[in-house]
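Example 3.2
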Amino acid sequence: MADRARAERADRAGCAGCAGCAGCAGCAGCARCAGALMAGTVLAVGVVGCAAALSIGLGAVGMAAVQAQRAAGAADAAALAAADAASGAASGTPCDRAGQVAAAGGAALTSCTVDGLAATVSVTVPVGALRAAASARAGPPAWARAENSPAG
């Protein structure tokens, strides 16, 4: 009678009903049941570990994207400031103005060239141990400069 009851409980719980096992759900009364419980634990730990690694990776990619946009914005503003200084709309020397504006945007000016009224700048922004770089140009378009040149 006890064997039959144990077998019925084992069928309902999905347990193998080993000798000495009570056959109830979540029972660790035998080596087979204990192994099944450990396999689930290992699987859960693996899933949580993969989710954590994926979250950290996506966070790093997101941070890099934000910093790249920050670098692009700082480069645009620095190029506009340099072009304004070159045209006389703002005081100061073009590359000094570009450096000041880049620093205000959290970037470091790495290069600055001025060709007439056009300015081209490059900046970098720290991204953890790396740096995000961006370049920008501001000033009249090349065709407008060619039309307004003395030879033109």
